[in-house]
Amino acid sequence: MAAQEQTHTPLEMRPFQIVVACTRELGIGLKGSIPWKLPLEIAFFKLLTSSTSASSKRNAVIMGRLTWESIPSKFRPLPGRLNIVLSRSPGPLSMDGDVQVCSGLIDALRLLAAPPYLTSVETVFVIGGGQVYKEAVELSNCDAIHITQIDLSCECDTFFPAFNEAPFRLWYSSMPMIENDLRFTFATYIRETARGYENGSQDNYNVEKPLTAVSRLPKMIREKHEEYQYLNLIHDIIQTGTEKGDRTGTGTLSKFGCQMRFNLRSHFPLLTTKRVFWRGVLEELLWFISGSTNAKVLQDKGVHIWDGNASRDYLDSLGLTEREEGDLGPVYGFQWRHFGAKYTDMHADYSGKGFDQLADAIQKLRIKPEDRRIILSAWNPSDLELMALPPCHMFAQFYVANGELSCQMYQRSCDMGLGVPFNIASYALLTCILAHVCDLKRGEFIHVLGDAHVYKNHVEPLEQQLKNIPKPFPVLKISTKEKDIDKLTARDFELIGYDPHKKIAMQMAV
């Protein structure tokens, strides 16, 4: 069990971040050297620890003496950074202007919390070795841990310590990379709440209003949160989108042909800059999977996202006067499970009728995962006039590599304010479910957007949303061992750590 965190008041010590590369077993070195060769990792380390937002500032790197001595002499001190070496016998190290020597980590952090370093150093990084890391992870002013996770087991004699993960949440995880036959990822974990210094003067210390660790992340890491793909696209559409009319008469600003990618391996992309109706996402997807076209099934569960398109007035406006209220016609679930079957009404039994695309996809994922025809299509031109709403998210392809399942979905019409946050979560969830029932690991969700639009009456609430800073994505846990997709229920899913900003109301265009 990890030791209790050491607590010091913000005025005592400078907040800092840890940078480390380690194996599966948290190994970081052997006999004073690194037992792998990853030039990309070295380049990332240099970029992370050297980059600053203010050109007049530099960063500081803190290391133990053994780590200092393990760096080839031609590369030390690490250029462009203030090097601080921890040693009780400083020797000649203090002779170099870019090197300071401190007797311990606490002394170094106190030094950096005082002039001139308080205002001249932007970010402080602890970079090793094992004993320094052990002390650092137990300090409450550790804002973040930047970790290169190397998929390798090898002999090591120095290790990164197991640490108390409770205060930390995953902020960013890169897609897996391969170099010199080694698979690795970059990840950043942040402390959820933190107090202390934020680039400027000592006046920025504020005990009453804690600063978040996010605000002190290097910009290159802060902006890697995948939610910024969505926020940046919203901003781009509002600023430069083409003004267009639309079916609803509301009017839109629009862009054509966009893409977002979400990593499903470690977290779940449920947007955090506003509250997304998770229960609605879950119940709707299970409703799709069941093949139902009856909006009343969702209404009975308190989910009313289809009410506008299932109302008597709306159906009558489409000429579907004979259609019972709540009957949406052959929409998503019907096409997934009964493609090509003749649709009569929402009460009919369609068992064994049409082509079950979902069952076919599952079978191929299980027995022939290399197949390039693992497709789920909701677009059936012969049925469009029978649908209350033609499918917006219409085509998904599934792909397996290295035992990981990924999904690419094409969406023809993308309501960025209301629909897209739901759609991201829905197809990410579908990918996680299919990975579960097919004994695969989770990979990526790639969202391809055709007409990506912002309704004009959504501009103001979306501009409000753009002011919110993303929070760490939650984690999705599927608790059941059930592999029959038709037997899954909402009770089998647990969303852990979802702490979004408040709900932002937007009116649905019908």
Automatic annotation (TrEMBL):
Active site location: C392
GO biological process, one term: tetrahydrofolate biosynthetic process
InterPro entries associated with the record: DHFR-like_dom_sf (IPR024072), DHFR-TS (IPR012262), DHFR_CS (IPR017925), DHFR_dom (IPR001796), Thymidate_synth/dCMP_Mease (IPR045097), Thymidate_synth/dCMP_Mease_dom (IPR023451), Thymidate_synth/dCMP_Mease_sf (IPR036926), Thymidylate_synthase (IPR000398)
Xref: NCBIfam families: PRK01827.1-3, thym_sym
Reactions the enzyme catalyzes: dUMP + (6R)-5,10-methylene-5,6,7,8-tetrahydrofolate = 7,8-dihydrofolate + dTMP; (6S)-5,6,7,8-tetrahydrofolate + NADP(+) = 7,8-dihydrofolate + NADPH + H(+)
Keyword line: Methyltransferase, Multifunctional enzyme, NADP, Nucleotide biosynthesis, One-carbon metabolism, Oxidoreductase, Transferase
One Pfam family per UniProt: Thymidylat_synt
Gene Ontology, cellular component aspect: cytosol; mitochondrion
Family the entry assigns: In the N-terminal section; belongs to the dihydrofolate reductase family.
Residue span(s) of domain DHFR: 15-191
Organism, scientific name: Adiantum capillus-veneris (Maidenhair fern)
GO MF, any single term: dihydrofolate reductase activity
CDD domains attached to this UniProt entry: DHFR, TS_Pyrimidine_HMase
Reported function: Bifunctional enzyme. Involved in de novo dTMP biosynthesis. Key enzyme in folate metabolism. Can play two different roles depending on the source of dihydrofolate: de novo synthesis of tetrahydrofolate or recycling of the dihydrofolate released as one of the end products of the TS catalyzed reaction. Catalyzes an essential reaction for de novo glycine and purine synthesis, DNA precursor synthesis, and for the conversion of dUMP to dTMP.
Pathway it works in: Cofactor biosynthesis; tetrahydrofolate biosynthesis; 5,6,7,8-tetrahydrofolate from 7,8-dihydrofolate: step 1/1
PROSITE patterns the record matches: DHFR_1 (PS00075), DHFR_2 (PS51330), THYMIDYLATE_SYNTHASE (PS00091)
Name of this protein: Bifunctional dihydrofolate reductase-thymidylate synthase
